[in-house]
């Protein structure tokens, strides 16, 4: 078995686990790249806009608007990732991983890239919890989908959670729905077909 496949020690903070630390560092690095890429897009757009604006104002304005939007979007992804990364790292340095069981499903539709829904089973560590996973498509698809799966969990003071698969190949922030309607919606998505609500 590889180092990442070994279970994390319950006697050490999560940040002391090499696989956990590696996953968070990869996330931080990718978030920084997204931020700088967005900034680069904005800088190049500003330069090209200044050069071409006089030649064709209408076409230039359209191109600049699209490029600025893309730059801001990519930069926002980077900033959001860095913010979540800082929160995750802070909690990992003071908490230990807890082994729990969960259902996880990404519900797809013709208009979205999927709606991730996570249901943590009630156990001695806490009651049932329903979460969304606010991150990029590639990251929330990295968490294995299925019913009654093992998952590592750390609760956050705000009621959310830090979650990871047993190999800690990805570490994700899970957010609790703000309303009962949102909770019921996510729970309907994640309950396996044919099972009964607990």
Give the topology.
Elements: H1 18-52, H2 57-92, E1 98-107, E2 115-120, E3 129-132, H3 137-140, E4 146-155, E5 161-164, E6 172-174, H4 180-190
Antiparallel strand pairs: 1-2, 1-4, 2-3, 4-5, 5-6
Helix pairs in contact: 1-2
Please characterize this protein's 3D structure.
With 198 residues, this protein is an alpha+beta fold. The protein folds into 2 domains: 15-92; 98-190, no CATH class. 43% of the residues lie in helices and 19% in strands. The chain has a 6-stranded antiparallel sheet.
Q: Into how many domains do the coordinates divide?
A: 2
- On the 0 to 100 scale, the average pLDDT is 84
Strand content: 15-25%
Structural class: alpha+beta
Order of helices and strands: HHEEEHEEEH
The gist of it:
By secondary structure, the chain is α+β, with helices and mostly antiparallel strands. Helix content is 43%, strand content 19%.
Q: What would the keywords be for this entry?
A:
198 residues; alpha+beta; 2 domains; six-stranded antiparallel β-sheet; 4 helices; 6 strands; disordered N terminus
